[in-house]
Protein backbone atom coordinates (compact mmCIF):
# COMPACT_ATOMS: atom_id res chain seq x y z
CA UNK A 1 0.00 0.00 0.00
CA UNK A 2 2.97 2.30 0.58
CA UNK A 3 3.71 1.97 -3.13
CA UNK A 4 0.17 1.88 -4.51
CA UNK A 5 -1.04 4.94 -2.59
CA UNK A 6 1.42 7.44 -4.11
CA UNK A 7 0.90 5.97 -7.58
CA UNK A 8 -2.88 6.42 -7.34
CA UNK A 9 -2.38 9.94 -6.01
CA UNK A 10 -0.14 10.73 -8.98
CA UNK A 11 -2.79 9.36 -11.35
CA UNK A 12 -5.46 11.50 -9.68
CA UNK A 13 -3.33 14.64 -9.86
CA UNK A 14 -2.56 14.05 -13.53
CA UNK A 15 -6.21 13.34 -14.36
CA UNK A 16 -7.41 16.55 -12.72
CA UNK A 17 -4.69 18.60 -14.36
CA UNK A 18 -5.25 17.11 -17.81
CA UNK A 19 -9.03 17.38 -17.72
CA UNK A 20 -8.94 20.99 -16.49
CA UNK A 21 -9.42 23.71 -19.14
CA UNK A 22 -6.18 24.86 -20.74
CA UNK A 23 -4.62 25.60 -24.14
CA UNK A 24 -4.49 21.90 -25.08
CA UNK A 25 -8.09 21.03 -24.21
CA UNK A 26 -9.36 24.33 -25.62
CA UNK A 27 -7.61 23.66 -28.92
CA UNK A 28 -9.10 20.18 -29.16
CA UNK A 29 -12.58 21.51 -28.35
CA UNK A 30 -12.47 24.21 -31.01
CA UNK A 31 -10.96 21.86 -33.58
CA UNK A 32 -13.70 19.31 -32.97
CA UNK A 33 -16.49 21.87 -33.20
CA UNK A 34 -15.11 23.63 -36.27
CA UNK A 35 -13.31 20.92 -38.26
CA UNK A 36 -14.88 17.64 -37.18
CA UNK A 37 -13.93 14.48 -35.33
CA UNK A 38 -11.05 13.27 -37.48
CA UNK A 39 -9.29 16.61 -37.22
CA UNK A 40 -9.89 16.78 -33.46
CA UNK A 41 -8.56 13.26 -32.92
CA UNK A 42 -5.46 14.09 -34.93
CA UNK A 43 -4.96 17.25 -32.89
CA UNK A 44 -5.42 15.22 -29.71
CA UNK A 45 -2.94 12.62 -30.96
CA UNK A 46 -0.29 15.29 -31.48
CA UNK A 47 -0.87 16.66 -27.99
CA UNK A 48 -0.74 13.16 -26.52
CA UNK A 49 2.56 12.36 -28.24
CA UNK A 50 4.00 15.66 -27.06
CA UNK A 51 2.89 14.92 -23.51
CA UNK A 52 4.43 11.44 -23.62
CA UNK A 53 7.72 12.86 -24.91
CA UNK A 54 7.87 15.29 -21.99
CA UNK A 55 6.90 12.46 -19.66
CA UNK A 56 9.80 10.35 -20.88
CA UNK A 57 12.15 13.29 -20.46
CA UNK A 58 10.99 13.80 -16.88
CA UNK A 59 10.95 10.09 -16.01
CA UNK A 60 14.54 9.54 -17.03
CA UNK A 61 15.76 12.62 -15.21
CA UNK A 62 16.50 14.74 -18.25
CA UNK A 63 14.28 17.47 -16.82
CA UNK A 64 16.92 18.04 -14.14
CA UNK A 65 19.47 18.64 -16.87
CA UNK A 66 17.14 20.96 -18.76
CA UNK A 67 16.44 22.94 -15.60
CA UNK A 68 20.12 23.83 -15.54
CA UNK A 69 20.07 25.05 -19.14
CA UNK A 70 18.37 28.41 -18.69
CA UNK A 71 18.85 29.41 -22.32
CA UNK A 72 16.98 26.34 -23.59
CA UNK A 73 14.02 26.94 -21.29
CA UNK A 74 14.02 30.60 -22.32
CA UNK A 75 13.85 29.68 -26.01
CA UNK A 76 11.06 27.17 -25.36
CA UNK A 77 9.16 29.74 -23.34
CA UNK A 78 9.49 32.35 -26.07
CA UNK A 79 8.47 29.97 -28.86
CA UNK A 80 5.56 28.58 -26.84
CA UNK A 81 4.31 32.03 -25.87
CA UNK A 82 4.61 33.28 -29.43
CA UNK A 83 2.69 30.26 -30.72
CA UNK A 84 -0.13 30.85 -28.24
CA UNK A 85 -0.30 34.50 -29.30
CA UNK A 86 -0.48 33.33 -32.92
CA UNK A 87 -3.41 31.11 -31.99
CA UNK A 88 -5.02 34.12 -30.30
CA UNK A 89 -4.59 36.17 -33.48
CA UNK A 90 -6.14 33.42 -35.60
CA UNK A 91 -9.07 33.12 -33.18
CA UNK A 92 -9.76 36.86 -33.27
CA UNK A 93 -9.42 36.89 -37.07
CA UNK A 94 -11.92 34.03 -37.31
CA UNK A 95 -14.32 35.88 -35.01
CA UNK A 96 -14.16 39.01 -37.18
CA UNK A 97 -14.54 37.18 -40.50
CA UNK A 98 -17.56 38.38 -42.45
CA UNK A 99 -18.79 35.00 -43.66
CA UNK A 100 -19.47 31.98 -41.49
CA UNK A 101 -17.17 29.19 -42.66
CA UNK A 102 -18.65 25.85 -43.57
CA UNK A 103 -17.98 23.29 -40.88
CA UNK A 104 -16.40 20.24 -42.42
CA UNK A 105 -14.31 17.29 -41.33
CA UNK A 106 -12.94 16.57 -44.80
CA UNK A 107 -9.57 18.33 -44.40
CA UNK A 108 -7.49 16.94 -41.55
CA UNK A 109 -3.92 17.56 -42.70
CA UNK A 110 -1.60 19.33 -40.30
CA UNK A 111 -3.60 18.90 -37.12
CA UNK A 112 -1.28 16.29 -35.62
CA UNK A 113 1.69 18.57 -36.21
CA UNK A 114 -0.12 21.53 -34.67
CA UNK A 115 -1.00 19.54 -31.56
CA UNK A 116 2.54 18.24 -31.21
CA UNK A 117 3.99 21.73 -31.60
CA UNK A 118 1.55 23.16 -29.08
CA UNK A 119 2.71 20.74 -26.39
CA UNK A 120 6.42 20.55 -27.18
CA UNK A 121 6.78 24.34 -27.05
CA UNK A 122 5.39 24.44 -23.52
CA UNK A 123 8.33 24.21 -21.07
CA UNK A 124 5.87 24.01 -18.18
CA UNK A 125 4.82 20.54 -19.33
CA UNK A 126 8.08 18.87 -18.34
CA UNK A 127 7.95 20.60 -14.96
CA UNK A 128 4.40 19.36 -14.42
CA UNK A 129 5.52 15.83 -15.25
CA UNK A 130 8.33 16.24 -12.75
CA UNK A 131 5.82 17.23 -10.09
CA UNK A 132 3.61 14.24 -10.91
CA UNK A 133 6.56 11.88 -10.62
CA UNK A 134 7.51 13.47 -7.31
CA UNK A 135 4.05 12.56 -6.01
CA UNK A 136 4.12 8.98 -7.27
CA UNK A 137 7.77 8.10 -6.68
CA UNK A 138 9.25 8.16 -3.19
CA UNK A 139 12.74 7.45 -1.89
CA UNK A 140 11.66 3.90 -1.08
CA UNK A 141 10.00 3.23 -4.45
CA UNK A 142 11.19 0.35 -6.61
CA UNK A 143 12.70 1.01 -10.03
CA UNK A 144 9.47 -0.01 -11.79
CA UNK A 145 7.31 2.65 -10.12
CA UNK A 146 8.36 5.61 -12.28
CA UNK A 147 7.66 3.78 -15.58
CA UNK A 148 4.29 2.67 -14.20
CA UNK A 149 3.41 6.28 -13.38
CA UNK A 150 4.51 7.33 -16.87
CA UNK A 151 2.47 4.65 -18.64
CA UNK A 152 -0.59 5.09 -16.43
CA UNK A 153 -0.66 8.86 -16.82
CA UNK A 154 -0.08 8.55 -20.56
CA UNK A 155 -3.10 6.25 -20.86
CA UNK A 156 -5.18 8.71 -18.85
CA UNK A 157 -4.07 11.44 -21.23
CA UNK A 158 -5.13 9.36 -24.22
CA UNK A 159 -8.56 8.88 -22.66
CA UNK A 160 -9.10 12.50 -21.62
CA UNK A 161 -7.93 14.17 -24.82
CA UNK A 162 -9.74 11.64 -27.03
CA UNK A 163 -12.93 12.17 -25.04
CA UNK A 164 -12.70 15.93 -25.57
CA UNK A 165 -12.24 15.33 -29.29
CA UNK A 166 -15.26 13.03 -29.49
CA UNK A 167 -17.63 15.05 -27.31
CA UNK A 168 -16.96 18.39 -29.01
CA UNK A 169 -17.24 17.00 -32.54
CA UNK A 170 -20.84 15.80 -32.20
CA UNK A 171 -23.39 17.28 -34.63
CA UNK A 172 -24.90 19.40 -31.83
CA UNK A 173 -21.52 20.80 -30.82
CA UNK A 174 -20.62 21.60 -34.42
CA UNK A 175 -23.99 23.24 -35.06
CA UNK A 176 -23.61 25.26 -31.87
CA UNK A 177 -20.20 26.44 -33.00
CA UNK A 178 -21.59 27.71 -36.30
CA UNK A 179 -24.25 29.74 -34.46
CA UNK A 180 -21.86 31.15 -31.85
CA UNK A 181 -18.68 31.35 -33.93
CA UNK A 182 -17.96 35.02 -33.23
CA UNK A 183 -18.22 35.02 -29.42
CA UNK A 184 -16.45 31.66 -29.22
CA UNK A 185 -13.62 32.96 -31.39
CA UNK A 186 -13.31 36.10 -29.29
CA UNK A 187 -13.29 34.08 -26.07
CA UNK A 188 -10.66 31.68 -27.40
CA UNK A 189 -8.55 34.57 -28.62
CA UNK A 190 -8.68 36.13 -25.17
CA UNK A 191 -7.78 32.87 -23.42
CA UNK A 192 -4.95 32.03 -25.83
CA UNK A 193 -3.64 35.57 -25.56
CA UNK A 194 -3.71 35.49 -21.78
CA UNK A 195 -1.95 32.11 -21.72
CA UNK A 196 0.70 33.32 -24.16
CA UNK A 197 1.33 36.53 -22.25
CA UNK A 198 1.55 34.63 -18.97
CA UNK A 199 4.08 32.20 -20.44
CA UNK A 200 6.21 34.99 -21.90
CA UNK A 201 6.25 36.99 -18.69
CA UNK A 202 6.73 34.07 -16.29
CA UNK A 203 10.04 33.23 -14.72
CA UNK A 204 11.96 30.58 -16.63
Please give a structural write-up:
- With 204 residues, the chain is an all-alpha fold.
- It contains 10 helices and no strands.
- Helices cover 79% and strands 0% of the residues.
- Helix 5 crosses helix 6.
- The protein has one domain (4-12, 25-201).
- The protein starts with a helix and ends with a helix.
Relative helix content: over 70%
DSSP summary, beta strand count: 0
* Total of DSSP H or I helical runs spanning 4+ residues: 10
Q: Characterize the largest beta sheet: strand count, sense, and whether it forms a barrel.
A: none
- Strand percentage, roughly? under 5%
Elements, N to C (H/E): HHHHHHHHHH
Report how far the terminal alpha carbons are from each other: 37 Å
Rg from Cα: 18 Å
General form: globular
Secondary-structure map:
Layout: H1 4-19, H2 23-35, H3 37-59, H4 62-68, H5 70-96, H6 111-120, H7 124-136, H8 145-167, H9 171-179, H10 181-201
List keywords for this structure.
10 helices; 79% helix; globular; 204 residues; mainly alpha
